Amino acid sequence: MLALGKLLELTLAGREPAQKIQLTVDGVQMRWLSEGALEVRPPEAKDNGSDLLLSSGIHGNETAPIELLDRLLHGIARGEIKPRSRILFLFGNPEAMRRGERYLELDVNRLFNGRHEKNIGPEAMRAAELEQLARSFFSLPGRSRLHYDLHTAIRGSKIEQFALYPWKEGRQHSRHQLARLNAAGMQAVLLQNKTSITFTAFTYEQLDAEAFTLELGKARPFGQNQGVDVSRLETRLKQIIEGTEPETDSLDGLQLFAVSREVIKHSDAFLLHLPADVENFSPLAKGYLLAEDVAKTRWVIEEEGARIIFPNPKVKNGLRAGILIVPCGDGALA
Ligand SMILES: O=C(O)CCC(=O)N[C@@H](CCC(=O)O)C(=O)O
Ligand SMILES: [Zn+2]
């Protein structure tokens, strides 16, 4: 296998490859751009005009998505997967990956869309670099742009695999993209309704990409992901890469949710009234006191059919400590 196919090994070892550009037997170019960043270019005659950004390791302890991208890269470097798309592979937070931690000082996935400029330290610099790498990758005109940012969650989930779809004023969520996600094994999609500071919010809002955060199961250390079944997503990604993706427009079985409210932690007095092992998508009854914070702030459930995802009272003050979601229809899709 070409040495650049071993991007994960290089990244975990903190090594820069001696040779930055390599060609596979089929003339596919692999180009190392920076730590944890590698571009794949099909030969011009094979290029189908689509650009695909695949990122993982934005949270360093979310290893199933990192292993999935590693397998795809190996397949390309060995000539077993024959790309017709340009691809940018990114491992988001290499130092956190080496330490097996979500982040060191700052959550990289809260540092996009300008937030890195208001912070200092390695993670703020990395977010700026990731923005630059994505901006440059998606700068070619007339090509389709797709970004999947792959994650696993801190806790178990009543719905194992789901996507979060960013939002931008004046732009409609795409039915075709949801059908694609359905075919890739996602069981639910959360349609956002405001701007955000995540990586996919940046590529969606600023780079005009279709962009999704994909949650694939529960976070576990490297080599312990047998319980995370990414086979349907992996098959679909190979098809997208090779330009052999079957057409689909079916949303059958896909559950759609809208954000009702984001629960923001304002102070150290924040209290979340949920068991530590509560699962994502757990239903919450109307009238339930979900959280309390400074100045007698109370979060009481008012919504019919409310559920909670990503509850986390340990986030830094000012950040999201959970999302309250409600079921929604597909009427607003383009
Ligand atoms: O399990 C959790 O609480 C977090 C899992 C995770 O990392 N999720 C992403 C979602 C990003 C988005 O909102 O699009 C995150 O919190 O960064
Ligand atoms: Zn994550």
Description:
It is built from 7 helices and 16 strands. The chain has 334 residues and is an alpha/beta fold. Strand 2 and strand 3 form a beta hairpin. The longest helix has 16 residues, at 122-137. The chain is globular, with a radius of gyration of 20 Å. The protein binds the ligand O=C(O)CCC(=O)N[C@@H](CCC(=O)O)C(=O)O and zinc ion (ZN). Residues 59, 109, 151, 153-155, 164, 198, 200, 213, 310, 312 line the site of the ligand O=C(O)CCC(=O)N[C@@H](CCC(=O)O)C(=O)O.
Fill in the keyword field for this structure.
334 residues; alpha/beta; Aminopeptidase; OB fold (Dihydrolipoamide Acetyltransferase, E2P); 2 domains; 13-stranded mixed beta sheet; three-stranded antiparallel beta sheet; 22% helix; binds the ligand O=C(O)CCC(=O)N[C@@H](CCC(=O)O)C(=O)O; binds zinc ion
* Low-confidence region ranges: none
Q: Describe the main β-sheet briefly.
A: 13 strands, mixed
CATH class group of the largest domain: Alpha Beta
Protein structure class: alpha/beta
Instruction: Report the total helices.
Output: 7
Q: What percent of the residues sit in helical stretches (DSSP H or I)?
A: 10-25%
Bound molecules: the ligand O=C(O)CCC(=O)N[C@@H](CCC(=O)O)C(=O)O, zinc ion
Overall shape: it is: globular
CATH topology of the largest domain: Aminopeptidase
Approximately what portion of the residues adopt beta-strand conformation? Answer: 25-35%
Let me know the CATH homologous superfamily of the largest domain: Zn peptidases
Distance between the termini: 43 Å
The pLDDT mean sits at 97
> How does CATH name the architecture of the largest domain?
3-Layer(aba) Sandwich
Largest sheet: spatial strand order: 1-2-3-5-4-6-9-7-8-10-16-15-12
Strands, total number: 16
What's the alpha carbon Rg, rounded to whole Å? Answer: 20 Å
Number of domains: 2
Written as H for each helix and E for each strand, in order along the chain, the element string is HEEEEHEHHEEHEHEHEEEEEEE
Domain Succinylglutamate desuccinylase/Aspartoacylase catalytic: 49-239
Domain AstE/AspA barrel-sandwich hybrid: 254-327
Cofactor: Zn(2+)
Organism: Pseudomonas pergaminensis
